[in-house]
Amino acid sequence: MVAASPLDPDAVLWSAPVEERGDRPLLVLLHGYGSNEADLFGLTPHLPEEFVAAAVRAPLAPRFPMPGYSWFTIDGVESRDHDEVLASAEAVWDWVDEVRGDAASVGLLGFSQGGVIALQMLRMRPQGAAFAVNLAGYAFPEPHAGDSELAEVRPPVFWGRGARDEVIPPRFVDHTAQWLPGHVDLSGRVYPDLAHSVSAEELGDVRVFLEKQLAAPKS
């Protein structure tokens, strides 16, 4: 596996100052390809305020001329760098280990590439996160050593995607539709008029999902 580039702690956007975090649950926001930490941080007013949201910046730069940051390299329509997926997921876990403090739980919310990382983090530590939200992302097709344990733990996962999304290759969508039900407690929705984006309707569904996680009994 390629060496993980650490996340930049100075780039993280927090919804609450350190003195107000305490044991509140931590929600890690993982942006998409060519974007940055400010993107998903804009969703925080629409999320339950019980969470402390932390929007992190991906550690890699996408290929020129794409701006922003990326979690892994995309080479053409179909090719993805699996080693970078693993390295970036490990880098986020390393950062979480450093900052979570007394947080009651850790949840993951990612868009597109960030959704891939959220699911990969679950596969690496099936009991490390309470849940994941995957928006317009997918499960990477390469098997992982943690997949069998994940299928036993079955953490809650919300998968939302647009029926008009032409960015994610169909084979990744098909694989995810087959793979997720056997490994997680899956809920979600396909939005007929949505492309590669997030809609107000989808945000409402995400909020309901997150509220259910807040109300779920702690094991």
Automatic annotation (TrEMBL):
Keyword tRNA-binding: no
Domain Phospholipase/carboxylesterase/thioesterase residues, every copy: 23-212
Keywords (A to Z) from UniProt: Hydrolase
InterPro entries membership: AB_hydrolase_fold, LYPA1-2/EST-like, PLipase/COase/thioEstase
Any single Pfam family the record assigns to this protein: Abhydrolase_2
Gene Ontology MF terms in the entry: hydrolase activity
Family: Belongs to the AB hydrolase superfamily. AB hydrolase 2 family.
Record protein name field: Dienelactone hydrolase family protein
